[in-house]
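Final report, closing paragraph on structural work. Over the funding period we assembled a curated collection of sequence-structure pairs, and we close with a single example.
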Amino acid sequence: MHVKSYHVIRATIFAGLLALGSSLAGCVGPLSCVDPEEQAVRDIVKCQEYGLTPGTDAFAACRKQLDEGRESAVMASQFKR
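Its predicted structure, as stored:
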């Protein structure tokens, strides 16, 4: 993967995480808005939309980054309360 492509993907993921964080702000807890299976499907689809292939290191990194972004958003929203 080219370095430029990596940065574009990373920036797109970051923008998506910001949007996700905003939508999660109203949730009571990390699992209250979407069940884990549905969230996994959403994450898989999102990473595939970025052009990543399941089973690759880049795909695993994408899934991990989405998950960590959700956790950070939840922690930030709980900290604000």
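Residues 3-80 form one domain. The two ends are 41 Å apart (CA to CA). We thank the funder for supporting this effort.
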